Prior knowledge:
The structure holds two protein chains of two kinds. Chain A has helices at 3-11, 25-36, 46-57, 62-71, 76-85, 105-109, 112-123, 178-185; strands at residues 97-102, 146-151, 163-165, 168-170. Chain A is α+β, with helices and mostly antiparallel strands. Chain A has two domains: 3-85, no CATH class; 97-185, Glutaredoxin (3-Layer(aba) Sandwich). Chain B contains 17 helices and eleven strands. Chain B folds into three domains: 29-241, NADH-ubiquinone oxidoreductase 51kDa subunit (Rossmann fold, 3-Layer(aba) Sandwich); 249-353, Ubiquitin-like (UB roll), CATH 3.10.20.600; 358-444, Up-down Bundle (de novo design (two linked rop proteins)). Chain B has helices at 29-34, 39-45, 49-58, 71-76, 102-108, 110-123, 138-153, 184-191, 221-233, 235-241, 273-280, 334-339, 358-372, 378-398, 403-414, 422-436, 438-444, and strands at residues 87-92, 128-133, 169-174, 216-220, 249-256, 262-267, 290-294, 303-304, 308-314, 320-326, 348-353. In chain B, helix 2 packs parallel to helix 6, helix 2 (39-45) crosses helix 9 and helix 6 crosses helix 9. By secondary structure, chain B is α/β, with parallel strands linked by helices.
Amino acid sequence: MRAGEKQRNHMMRESTTRQADDLTPAILAEADELVSHYPVSTRSASLPLLHLWQTHFGSVDDSGIEWIAAKLSLTPINILELVTFYPWFRREAAGKTVIRVCRTLACAMAGSSEVKEKFCEAVGLDRLAEHHGYGSAPPTSPDGKFSVEFVECLASCGSAPVALINDDLVENIKPSDVASIVEKLK
Amino acid sequence: MPPPLPPPHPKERRIIFENISKPGYAPDLETYLAHGGYESLRMALAMKPAEIVDAVKAASLRGRGGAGFPCGTKWGFIKYDDGKPHYIVVNADESEPGTFKDRYILHQDPHQLIEGLAISAFATNTHLAYIYIRCEFPHAARIVWNAIQEARAKGFLGKNILGSGFDLDIYVHQGAGAYICGEETSLLESLEGKRPYPRIKPPYFPAVLGLYMKPTIVNNVETICHVKHILRLGAAEYAKMGTPGDGGTRTMCVSGDVVRTGFYEIPCGAVTLRELIFDVCGGLKPGRKLKAVIPGGSSAKVMRADESYQMKVKGQDGVMAEHSVPMLDIVMDAPSLQSAGTMIGSAGIMVLDDSRDMLWALNNLNAFYAHESCGQCTPCREGSRWMSNMTSRMLGGGGRPEDPDDLQNIADSIAGRTICAFGEACSWPTQSFLAKFPEEFSHAAGNQPATTKN
């Protein structure tokens, strides 16, 4: 499949389930709270609502884009264009645990390539699996538990190499540590 | 949470990082108050706002985010009584490769930032402020937000702060993984909920047409924290710590091939590069020689270890004159590095020893810039990708004789031709690596054997 086709498929994916059907009162309350942080322009709440959505559902589907747009009196393209720009957001669910290994210079000098390969191996992914972007899910293990990807500088160059594992930063990772780190996450 | 840090080096003077890693120091309000917290805010509220702006000017505080703009001058662009709403946005999007200071402040001492921000807001007649934190710091966003709510509950934020009649609300805004949002106008677009394409200056100087097209100050986390200490110590005392035009302390983040990587808060101009690497950071790894230093975040032009720079310095007779200064004897402050043709930037200092291949290092940075270009301006969008593809091909053994010239040509065609400074940021590494290590690029291009490569 050509890259363009692949991208388009992410954008226009037909889905049988709609995330918006599963909104809970707690999420609705949290959304109202977030919008209240922007008294001058509710459009500013688009990133916070996308974060809220992706944290809860694991990805942002068409119903999410439409719901956020309606909530902020915007059109869906105003939200979709954010999802396709910002590397953090995705249209497909990732693994339950997302392992983001820093790729940039200080970490690379400290061996982050090997660390990333070890993470891939430890979770059952191809050693050189790559994330292709465009809102797609990062490479995810066959059991759906783990995703592994390279990300750019995580701002912890003094304790390189580092990885952000879900919300937690893991520092000074040795390739030989990786298997036990993954074991603890299982 | 970040790990505990070693005790300060004797060359250090910890002001911003005084309580970082201190045993028993927690990011809560109670701890902060027990360490003299919010006393500077009380002091500020009893002053005239213009006096605070004057103090920041007199302190010679330069922005700590990378551009190094004089902070007081920036604040001076805001007219206190122009009848418009003003905003302050704290840039906590720390993402310049090599830089890792703000993460410690946000995680371990959030009230210091909030106090500095409240003082800054009072000085500039600002009643709404945002702290833009990159989403890769999820704990920091929660810690700072908790701290804001604690401060509000005790009357340090909100309506009628400490009975002064001054109101301020602060909110946390999280980014979404884009380096470009560290550029101030891009950050504002992001905060407005749009794609973060930088705005062109003129006319969109944040101080004139900033957030929601209103006068806005965008300052780095560390810069805002310094404001508190300028009031606490007095502007003259604060300025005296640094050099003329570069006051106070600066937190240097050292990474790469030194024994003790980490951050060191050092009075501006108090150490040379030699002292920083060989004394403060414990030198290089055993048996290694210094090869290169990137002194101010990955965009800063690289310096080569065996180079000397012609610059005006005070000689032994105390007279300012043009001297040839070896790279290691350069003083680590903003004016000195500027004379050496590079910059202190965000003070993210990356050290490379003789085991490093400069083409490999440049290729890593080129991939970073190609990934992070926002795509708005053609020279940067296309050029950053071309440079990355070329260095990648050269590294894989596919170098062609024309590659060094082509790389140079592409880099020269980006810098100065884009809306924001990312164009310079992505071309400076290529320009400086080519200029300083031509033999390695020639070799990879198949033109001549390398002499410095191992």
